[in-house]
Structures are given as C-alpha cells and as structure tokens.
Amino acid sequence: MNPTAPTEASAGPLGHHARFVPATADGLAPLLALHGTGGDENDLLPLAAMVAPGAAILSPRGAVLENGMPRFFRRLAEGVFDEADIVRRANDLADFVEESRSTLGLARPIALGFSNGANIAAAMLLLRPEVLAGAILIRAMVPLKEPPSRADGTPADRPVLILSGAMDPIVPSDNAARLARQLALAGAAVTHEILPAGHGLTQADIGLATSFLREHGTLGAVG
After folding, report:
1. Residue 35 belongs to what domain range?
2. Strands (DSSP E) found in the chain
3. Looking at the 3D structure of the chain, how many domains does it have?
C-alpha cells in the first residue's frame, strides 16, 4: 500500500464516512480535518497537507444532510443552530475520534475546521476537550449560547487559533469575539486573528495556520 495515499478509515459509532492519510514524518500531531457545509471527507485534505506536511490526517464527513449537503449538525436557519443536536453530534464525533485513534494508533489530533466544521470543533472543545490537542477554527461562530462549566479545568492551555473575516457576511464580528472569550474562559490558550476577508478561505488563513502548526503541531508541544 502507498503510505501517502488516502485510505478509508475505520467506521466510528455512527458509521462516519472518513478518509485517513498516514503520517510521512515523525513527531507531528495528527490533524482532524472538518469540512464546511456541502463539503465531504475529501475537501480539506489538500489544505491539511499544505499547512502540516507529513502529518497524519483523519477527515470525517458530517453525518447530517441539509438539502443533500453534508453538515456536522442541524441548524434551524442561517446562523441559528439546533443546540441539542450540536451536543449529540459533538459527542458522537468525539467518540468517533477516540475509536479511530485506538484503531489507527494516533495521538490526540489538532482540529482543522472550516465554517460548520470549525463550529463542531469549537463545540468539542467546550464539551469534550480531552479529545483534542488544540484547534484551528476558520470562520467559526458560537455553537452553544451557554457552554457547560467544567470543574476539571480542561481544556487547560489547549492552543486554539480562531481566524475570522472582517467582511464575513455569515459570522458577525461580535459572535466570533464571544467564541474566543468562551474558549479562553474554559482554559484554552486562544489567539484570535481578524483578517481583511469574507467567509472564504484566503492565503492569509493558510499562512497563519501553517505558522500555528509549526509552533504547536509537534507531539512534544501538544502533549
């Protein structure tokens, strides 16, 4: 088998469709690639390979369909989320990651999420932070209006990079700022960058994500 070729990952508790790219370099934290609305398990593989060359990549497809488009959780309208479904899906995805780690022999991953994928990653950080070693959240917004308090203090010192667009028509600037505060209050080490961009991915996002992973993407850095 070609070790650099994407392969089908073992199905998790919900039978997630997923792709797995084995590592080709030692000492790098794996990435959990989480696509946006209408994407699939293939969408973020090129981005993940670009920002963390040689890292293993686990890339699941969202288990919810909205007008035929995969998502990671239900929404009631643009920017209005079904929070009960978010809790369910974040826990299901966390279980999938844990099962996949056991099957594939992976360390805790750093989430790389775009839009809807960034939102489910943020929910995982708030609900199941022990599953992730950190996160890059591109165009994320608040997934839970009132996140649970966590007596154990996690995600203590988890590195989190939030990349927002100043001209994003979907994510209001105050919403992204509130997410940064939520995660910081939960104990994450948050860096929030606001770029001269809309909702789409830009070269600046790629550069900042690459720099973040150079600093935090080794196994020694994330523990």
Report:
1. 7-222
2. 7-8, 18-21, 31-34, 57-60, 64-66, 69-71, 75-77, 80-81, 110-114, 134-138, 159-165, 189-195
3. 1
Which active-site residues does the annotation give?
A: 115, 168, 199
Residue 128 lies in a domain: yes
Asked whether 36 and 15 are in contact (CB, 8 A), the reply is no
Single-letter residue type at 95: D
- pTM of structure: 0.91
User: For the segment 14-24, what is each residue's pLDDT rounded down to a tens digit?
Assistant: 457 899 999 99
122: in domain: yes
Count of positions (residues) in the chain:
223
- Please identify every stretch of the chain with a pLDDT value under 50, giving residue numbers as ranges: 1-14, 151, 153
Per the domain annotation, does 2 fall within a domain? no
Pair type for strands 189-195 and 18-21: unpaired
pLDDT tens readout for residues 114-155:
999 999 999 999 999 999 999 999 999 999 998 877 645 455
CATH number, domain of 67, equals 3.40.50.1820
1 belongs to a structural domain: no
Environment class of 42 (CB within 10 Å of its CB; exposed 0-12, middle 13-18, buried 19+): middle
